[in-house]
Write a structure and sequence with these properties.
Elements lengths: L7 E4 L9 E6 L3 E6 L5 E5 H7 E6 L2
Antiparallel strand pairs: 1-2, 1-5, 2-3, 3-4
Length: 60
């Protein structure tokens, strides 16, 4: 899967704040993503992010 910094993605699981949309801040073995609803940032392994993606909203 070709994901880049700045891409906005929609994940299967809802964040506790209620948001599904995230922005990718860092790529590599681990991804740093930011919730677009509350601004919280989390780190997830690449495999986990790729498994949870339902849709890539924008590709910059």
């Amino acid at each position: 899967m070709d994901l880049k910094v700045g891409d906005k993605i929609k994940l299967k699981k809802q964040h506790p704040c209620g948001g599904y949309e995230w922005e990718i801040l860092r790529v590599g073995a681990d991804f740093r993503i930011k919730c677009l609803t509350c601004g919280r940032q989390i780190w997830l392994p690449r495999k986990e992010v790729e498994r949870r993606i339902t849709k890539i909203i924008t590709e910059e």
